[in-house]
Amino acid sequence: DNKKEIAKQTYYGFSTFSLQLNEPVENTAPTDSRHRPDQRFLENGKVDEAAAEKLRLEELQRGRRKTATNSQPQWFSLREDPDTGEAYHTYHGGYWASKIAQDFSQSPDIF
Question: Is pLDDT at 50 greater than 70 in this prediction?
């Protein structure tokens, strides 16, 4: 019906549940992907601004990779499965304490 078609165009074919997964949440780390400015532009229908912002973020990321010396994830450690030899990340703590204290001063500025 017509309402479904309008909703499909409005939400880019995503269900309401799918869209809500990316809703901003207060008091999250500044590195949380829900803070991505390119996503916000896209969700607000500003496609050209989203593309330009995505390019800017990708260039920043490439620059960080070139200059990074042994950078490690902040709250995860890289491990190796003893049976398969496959690499995986495991949470080693710290996020919830930072969230409760609202102290993300150790988090990099990625956006």
Answer: yes
Which helix or strand (DSSP H or E) is residue 37 part of? helix 37-43
pLDDT surpassing 90 at residue 9? no
Predicted confidence (pLDDT) per residue in 71-110, tens digit: 778 899 999 999 999 999 999 999 999 999 999 998 888 8
What is the CB neighbour count within 10 angstroms for residue 67? 8
Residue 54 · residue 72 · CB < 8 Å: no
Owner of token pair 């809500």:
20
Q: How far apart are CA 87 and CA 81, in angstroms?
A: 6
Residue with tokens 């102290």: 103
Q: How many CB atoms lie within 10 A of CB 38?
A: 19
Distances in whole angstroms, Cα of residue 21 to Cα of each of 14, 25, 41, 69, 98: 11, 10, 16, 33, 22
